[in-house]
Amino acid sequence: MSGGVDSSVAAALLVRQGYDVVGITMKLFEDGSDLPDRPCCSLDSTSDARRVAELLGIPHYVLNMVDHFSRDVIAEFVAEYARGRTPIPCVRCNTFTKFSDLVAKADGIDAQYVATGHYARAIDGDLHRGLDENKDQTYFLWGINRAVVKRLLLPVGGMTKPETRALARELALPRVADKAESQEICFVPDGDYVQILRRELGDEAPALSSGKIVTMKGRVVGQHEGFARYTIGQRRGLPGGWGEPMYVVALRPETREVVVGPREALLGSRVAASGVNWLVEAPPRVGDEVQVRIRHRASLASAVVDAVGEGTAAFSLVSPVSAITPGQSVVIYEGTRVLGGGFID
Amino acid sequence: MPLPPIYLDHAATTPVRPEVLEAMLPYFATKFGNASSTHRWGREARAATDTARERIGACLGANADEICLTSGGTEADNLAVLGGWRIQQGNGRPGLVTTPIEHKAVLMSAHQVAREGGDERLLDIDPTGQVNLDSARRLIRDDVAVTSVMWVNNETGVIQPIEELVALAKGAGAVFHTDAVQAFGKVEIDARKLPFDLCSVSGHKFGAPKSIGAVYVRRGTPLAPLFFGGTQDRGRRPGTENVPMAVALATAMELTLKEKDAECARLRALRDRLEAALRSRVPDAVVHGRGAPRAPHMLSLSVPGTDSESMLMALDLQGVACSSGSACQSGSVTPSHVLSAMGVSSELGSAVVRMSVGKLTTDEHIDRVIALFPALIEKARALAGRF
Asked: Is the ipTM of this complex over 0.90?
């Protein structure tokens, strides 16, 4: 229970359905616990979660997961930027923190199920997209242990966000119904991830040191203050004066170069992934047709499986898509069912 | 039908005793007067607070004028440490000596002294949980304004060598304060027998409501007030007297002292039985402070391969209320500064469970906890590898 509307309503629905519910708030990091408006882990959001639990008449505990979250999520977030990739920490948080560490805690109290406020559905041991396609969060959930899916309860996954908010109001859940949506990364204050990188890597780190901005043909067109400030498809922070808009099309950490090119240079139709996790017994085979998503909120793309290896997979997209970004996830679907996913290389 | 839950957290707080509640109630209603008023309502309230001070004083071997009523233990400690140090500023006594195992109310006051230019010195703690007297001899010198050492530690129950420390402080001409919040009713506290200057108590630890406490202030001990206002409590603690709470504190202290010997023997037997059974069933359990004299109501133990947070949650869900001894405001367990000062490893420190017996504890409770605890430990250890 983060103190937000989704997990609060999820808890309320479970109580209403007659489950014996224990509320848990994970304390994930120390910074900013005194900032009132952070989406989670601040004292305020913890007390919002506690107020909801009090209202629902369920016990509520705060579990300190700071060490593991720092090791499994924040450290890798930083390392990925240092490698010139664009990480997606929510995936690792779900994989390692929520659906592994928290599940171990749940086992410690003999909890049969683990419930969260995710917009996704667990049906017969399979993970499906949430009914509200605008809010679907399976993009972040592909990495979890398949066995855990059988124990998942995702009460808001069958609802739309407006329905969730309406229910929060109907249940008179204190303070949570009209809370602002949390889009930013929970441990990054004000969306300024560079601040975290500077703290963890130091200002002298290659990823934060100046380098050249070059065209795809190698012409130097400017300077940047650290390739970790850029991501594929970005326009902000690039020199102007071109006949057409220019975008970041590649990062080269070994030479600290940021490569720019026109919009069409962003298009790609090959996706290779590592760290692949399958959520189904029989993963797709070479030649199978699947649907993939390569970025949160991007539309689904039809693809053909090119290769499946030990923890790896590759796909050919039927039509090219823009900004296939290393470090982001590729999630593989069949209908609404999540087959698996991996990190884009 | 689940069994009724078991409260093993008397060191955190205790229920208000019915006699106490009964004694205080009239002062909310018919006897509502302001003790500073000259009319009959005022006189009635004044008589009640005067009597309460006398009764509280008698419980500490003190006179009524030596009792300063506060909003609780935290204010009492703040007033003693900060008030005692501030008034001696400029007397060539910048020193403030305390220990790293104090309650945060003393520790944070000591840090505030340091921010105000004082010389904060922390005594060493032996692995048993007692203050190291050699370090006390070294640090309590004639440049010390106040020495503050708790009587009974709130996490381990270890009794500190107050007699020796008082002597050292008095020898150096320093004011001696002791935080006796966990000590009252568990050890003898008599201002006629030991020459401490300041002593804090907190009512809710022994059957009075929360938000009432007192500092004993030996006659002649200088103290700067924390608050500014009227002349109540000789100006040491301005603010309209909380008459019902004063009556409650006096009543709870008297009841506690009257029953002290018998109750302490009862609690010690319960605690010792619990401790012996848990140690025999979980042989590698470590009891903190076991080598030192301990107050009879507390048991602080760590089992390797477990963690406090999970243990407390599992115990609570099984109906057993314990504590880790320290909690941060968000409710999450933080590593104990007391155990780390004793040299306990962070692995053991993060596994601590504090059980404190008291008024509500029965033999049957102890039996149930003895039956339950080893199984929880086994499960916690099995899961530890996964976390």
From this structure: no
